[in-house]
Amino acid sequence: MTAAMEIKNLSKNFGGIVAVEDLTFDIKKGEIMGIIGPNGAGKTTVFNLITGVYKPTAGTVIFEGKDITGQAPDAIVRKGIARTFQNIRLFKHLSALDNVITALDLNYPMYNLAEAIALNLPFIPGKVKRGEKSLQEKAMFFLEMVGIGDKANIRADALPYGLQRKLEIARALALEPTLLLLDEPAAGMNPEESMDLARLIKQIQIKLNLTVFLIEHHMDLVMELCDHLFVVNFGRELAEGSPAEIQANPAVLKAYLGEGYKHAQS
Amino acid sequence: MSYYVQGVLIMAMINAISVVGLSVFTGFTGLMSLGHAAFIAIGAYTAAILTKLYGFPFVPSVVLAGIMAGMVSLVIGIPTLRAKLRSDYFTIATLGFGEAMRVLLENLPITQGARGLPGLTPYSTLPVVFIFFVLVTFVAKNFVFSRYGRMAIAVREDFVAAEMAGINLFNVRLRSLFFSAVCAGIGGAFQAHYITYIQPNMFTNVQSTLLTASVVAGGMGSLTGPIIAALVFAAIPEVLRVANMWRLVAYGGILVAIMVFRPQGIFGYKELTFKGIYRGYKHLAAKVTGQGGAK
Amino acid sequence: MQMLMQTIVTGLAVGGIYALMAVGYSLIFSILNFSNFAYGGIIMLGSYMGFYALTLLHVPFAAALALSMLGAAALSFLNERIAYSSLRKRHAPSLYFMISAMGTSIFLENMVYATLGSSYNAYPEIFGQSSISLFGSTIGKLDLFAIIFSLIAIYIMNYFIQHTRTGIAIRAASYDSEVSQINGVNLSAVIGLVFILAGLLAGVSGVFLGMKYMAYPTMGWITNKAYISAVIGGLGSLPGAVVGGLILGVLESLVSVYVSSLLRDVFSFTFLIVLLLVMPSGLFGKYLEEKV
Ligand SMILES: Nc1ncnc2c1ncn2[C@@H]1O[C@H](COP(=O)(O)OP(=O)(O)OP(=O)(O)O)[C@@H](O)[C@H]1O
Ligand SMILES: [Mg+2]
After folding, report:
1. A141, A170, A199: which is the final residue of a domain?
2. Residues A196 and A253 in one domain
3. Counting CB atoms within 10 angstroms of each CB, which of C187, C203, C205, C276 has the fewest?
4. Which of A170, A198, A226 finishes a domain?
C-alpha cells in the first residue's frame, strides 16, 4: 500500500502555546487511521493544519505525492480532502438537502453566473432549474447513504444532535473526497449508537473506496474500526501502531490514566 | 396619482434599489459595511457629472454610475477581502474608505468641493425608476436563489465550514460587495437626479443607516422583507411629518431593538412571494422549515 | 528642525487624546472581541456633560471632569446591558453586535442633535490661551495638561488591570471568556466593569476633546481615530493603543504640515487600510486564528 498522506515534522505554535510539535506519520491509501490522545493534545489542530485552516509553523503535508502545505482550505478540498468538525458547523438556516447541495457545487457546477442571473425566468423551465433539480437528486443519494434521506427538507439546526453529525458526514462525502477526516464523529453518542456509526463509516469507506483519518475518544469504536493508530500527548507523538499494540503500550495507558495507572498496575 | 404620492414612491424605490444590494451583502453574505454611502455618492457624482458636464443621456449615465461604483468597490474589496480580515476589521476598513471618499469629494475640482453640483435635471421619473427597481430586484432574486446565493448564505452561516465545502470566500464576498456597490451606484444616480443637486455631506451615515435599518428590520436573508421595509421607511416619515433627526433616533433604536428581540427581522430567511400569497398560510408555514420559497 | 520639533510636539498632544480613546475602545475589544462603534457616542456625551457641568452648574474643572467621567461610565455600562448583554448570552454572531453598536451610536448622536441642537459648544477657558515652551517648541497649557493627564489615566488603568485581583479577573476573561467562567469568574460582572472603566476614559477624552474642538453632536467621528490608533497598536493591546495613538497623532501632524492639511484624514484612513492589509495584528497585537 502506498501513502495517501505523508506528514513530516509538523509543528504549530499559538503565541506561546505549542499545540503540535514535530509530528511525522503516514496515512496509507484505503486504510482507516485513528488519532487519539487526551483533551488538548493537539488532534484537532492536526486536522486544521492538514486542511489549511491554520498555517503550520513548520513541517510539510504531502497529499498523493504533492506538497499541499499552507494552501487555502478550498484549494485543499479541491485536491480531494474533506472533513467534519468537532463542534458541528452546519449551515444552520439551510435545509439538510441544501447543506449537501452546497458541497456538490464544487464538482457539479450546473450553470454559470450569467445563466443564473439572466436565464432563470419565472414559470419557464431552463438550465438553472434543470441543474438545481439534478443537484437535488444527487444530494439525496448522500443523505440516504448516511441514513437521513427522510430529513431532507428539515432545517439543519432543527435536526437532533446525532443526525447533525451524520449530515456533516453527508456534506463532506458530497465533495467526493479520496481522504475523509472525521473529528469525533461519535461525540455525544451512547456506546450502542457509536458502534452503529462505526459500522456506517466502515460501509461508506468500502463503498466509496475512501481513506479515513479520524479522531475519537470512544475507545471501543476506535479499536473496532481503525487499522492503524497514532497517539499524541501534549502535541508530541506518544506511540504509533495497530490497535492491539496501542492497547498494550504502557506509555499510552499512563497518558490516559495519569497517576492512577501505577495503582492499577500494582 | 398626486404629485406628492408620486414623489414618495420614487424616493422609496430609489432607496429600495440600494437596499436590495445591501440585503445581498449583509443579509445573505453576512458582511457589514459602514461605507456604503460612499458608493451611493460615487454613483450620484458619476451620473451628475455625465449628464450635467458632458451632456450624456440619462439612462446610460445611470448604468455607468453603477459600473463606476462597482469598479471602486473592487479597488477597496480586492485587497481587504483577499487578506481575509476578521469581519470587524473589514468593517473598520469600509469606515475608513467611506470617510476618505467623502474628504476626496470635498476636495476634487470636478466635484466642486463642498458646494457640490446644483441644478441637475430631474430625470428620475416614476417609470424609469420603476423599471430599474424591477430589473435590480429580478437580478438579485435570481442571484440569491442560485448556487451563487447558496454559496453566499454558506459563507454567512459559517465561513470556515464554507471554505471546507470548497467555497472560495474571496470570490463570494467580492461578488456580493460588487453587486451591492452597483446597486448603490444606481440608487445614487437616481437620487441625484431626483433631488436635482448633490453635496458631499449628503452621503454620510444617515444614508448608510437608513439602508442598514431596512435590511435588518426587513430581515436578513430575505429580499422581499428589506424591500418592504425600505418602502415603509420612506413613507412613514412623510406621512407623520417627523423631523429627520427624530427619524434617525428611531432608526438607531430599531436597530438595537431588533438585534435584542428579533434578530431575524420581520421576514428573516423567508420570502413573500406571489405564490406564497396565493397558497396562503400553509405554504408560508412550510417555508419556515427551510425550503426557500421562490425556488 | 525647529519646525519639525514643533510639529511632533503638536502631534503628541493630539495623540495623547487618541491614545486615551483607543485604550477605552481596545479594552472593550479585548474582552468582547468586537468593535464597539458606540464608543464615540459615549465620548460625545461625556463631552456634553463636562460642558454643562462647567456652564450650567458652574462647578470647578476637577468636579466637571469627575462628573463627566461618572456619567460616561454609567452610559457605557447601560450601553452594554441594553445593547449587547442579551446578544452575548445568546452567542450571537459578531455581525449582530456590530449592528447593535451602530444602532446605539446613531441613536445617541441624533438624540443629542434632536434635543440639544447642532450648535458647537465652546468650553469656557480653563487654561487660557497661554502656552509654555519646551525643548524650544511651544505647547499649549491645555495640550500639556491633556497629554500628562491622559498618560496618568492610562497608567492607572494599566496598573489596575495588571496588579489587582479584579484586573486579573478581567485579563482571565479576555483570554478565554468561556474557560474563566467555569473558574467562577462572574463574567457578566467583569464585562460590566470593563464597560465602566472604558466609560471613565471616555469621559476624560470627551472633556479634553471638548476643550480642544468644542462639543457638538457629530464629534464622535473623531473617535474613528481611536479605531485607527488601536489597529496600529494591535487591537486588544493596551500598550499598543497608547503607542498607536501617539504615532497616529504625530503622523497626522506631519502630514498636515508637510503635505496638506486637507489630506490629513484621507491619509489616516488610507494608512488604516494599508496597515490592516500588511500588519493586521498591529505592533503589539495578538491576532490569533479563530479556534476551529
Ligand atoms: N486558535 C487557537 N489559538 C490558541 N490556542 C489554540 C488554538 N487552537 C488550539 N489551541 C490550543 O492548542 C492546544 C491543542 O488543541 P486541540 O484543539 O488541537 O486539542 P484536541 O486534541 O483536539 O483536544 P480535544 O480532545 O479536547 O478536542 C490546546 O491547548 C488549545 O487550547
Ligand atoms: Mg479536538
Report:
1. A170
2. yes
3. C187
4. A170
pLDDT tens column, A116-135 = 888 777 777 788 888 999 99
Q: If you measure CA to CA, which chain C residue comes closest to A51?
A: C292
CB A102, CB A94: distance < 8 Å: yes
Instruction: Give the SS3 label for residue A181.
Output: strand
Q: Which CATH architecture has domain C2-278?
A: Orthogonal Bundle (1.10)
**Mind listing the pLDDT tens digit for each residue in C75-102?**
999 999 999 998 888 888 888 898 899 8
Assign residue B28 the CATH number of its domain.
1.10.3470
Determine contact, residues B36/B211, Cβ cutoff 8 Å: yes
| Pair (A138, A213) in one structural domain | no
pLDDT means per 10 residues in chain C (292 residues)? Answer: 82 88 88 86 95 92 94 96 89 86 91 89 80 75 82 84 81 64 68 92 92 85 84 83 91 88 82 81 68 61
Lowest mean pLDDT among A100-109, B71-80, B234-243, C19-28: B234-243
Three cell numbers written together for A223: 479499536
Cβ of A11 closer than 6 Å to ligand 1, yes or no, is no
Nearest CA in chain C to A12: C289
Measured in Å, residue A81 CA sits from the centre of ligand 1 at 21
Residue B269 belongs to what domain range? 3-294
User: Would the CB of A41 count as within 6 Å of ligand 1?
Assistant: yes
Interface touch B253/C277, C-beta < 8 Å: no
What are the structural domain ranges in chain C?
A: 2-278
CA distance B262 to C159: 41
pTM of the model: 0.89
The b-or-e profile of A90-104 (16+ CB within 10 A means b, else e) is bbbbbbbbbbbbbbb
Q: Judge contact between C205 and C24, C-beta under 8 A.
A: yes
Range(s) of the domain holding residue A23: 1-80+177-266
Same domain, residue pair A15 and A138:
no
A98 plus A74 within the same structural domain: no
What type of residue sits at position A89? R
**Does residue B291 surpass a pLDDT of 60?**
no
Residue B28 touches partner A, C-beta closer than 8 Å? no
CATH code for the domain of A16:
3.40.50.300
